[in-house]
Amino acid sequence: QVQLVESGGGLVQPGGSLRLSCAASGSIFSINAMGWYRQDPGKQRELVASITSSGSAKYADSVKGRFTISRDNAKNTVFLQMNSLKPEDTAAYYCNAEVVRGIVTWAYWGQGTQVTVSS
Predict the structure, then answer these.
(1) Rounded distance between C-alpha atoms, residue 99 and residue 27, angstroms
(2) What is the pLDDT of residues 33-78, one digit of tens each?
(3) In the predicted model, is pLDDT for residue 102 greater than 90?
(4) Which residues in 68-106 are b (16+ Cβ under 10 Å) and which e?
(5) Calpha distance 42→11 (Å, rounded)
(6) How many percent of the chain have pLDDT more than 70?
(7) Distance between CA 56 and CA 75 in Å, rounded?
(8) Which of 28, 78, 90, 110 is in Cβ range 3.0-4.6 Å of 4 for a Cys bridge?
(9) 88 pLDDT higher than 90
(10) Pairwise CA distance, residues 51 & 59, whole Å
């Protein structure tokens, strides 16, 4: 089995910063893309940022220039550095990983971590 454990969420004032971490553990041969999604109650989950195993990243337009995704392949960990946070960034943030197990690739999700941007 595979687990994704997220950390780093919390309450921050507008303009502040937070760094989210997500570590994958378990029966892992390798991990392809890893990413961060967010979801507000009553809304669809949306992609915030993703990164391939070679380090190629893409971002939602709403976070470009403010958020940076990175990963440590040796530790199966992905990070999301969030700067210049805005109230509209408030959401539950979920980590996602495409894990290769044998000849099959599975998508796994973390349990979510809450980010609240408020004064």
Answers:
(1) 9
(2) 999 999 998 899 999 999 999 999 999 999 999 999 999 999 999 9
(3) no
(4) bbebeeeebbbbbebeebeeebbbbbbbbbbbeeeeeee
(5) 21
(6) 100
(7) 18
(8) 110
(9) yes
(10) 9
Torsion of CA 70, 73, 74, 80, to 10 degrees: 30
Sign, Cα dihedral of 111, 21, 62, 15: positive
Q: HSE of 76 in the Cβ direction (CA atoms, 13 Å)?
A: 20
- Dihedral sign, CA of 85, 91, 92, 98? negative
Contacts of 23 (CB under 8 A, 6+ apart): 4, 5, 75, 76, 77
Contact by Cβ (8 Å): 114, 9: yes
By CB atoms closer than 10 A (0-12, 13-18, 19+), residue 3 is: exposed
**Residue 14 amino acid letter:** P
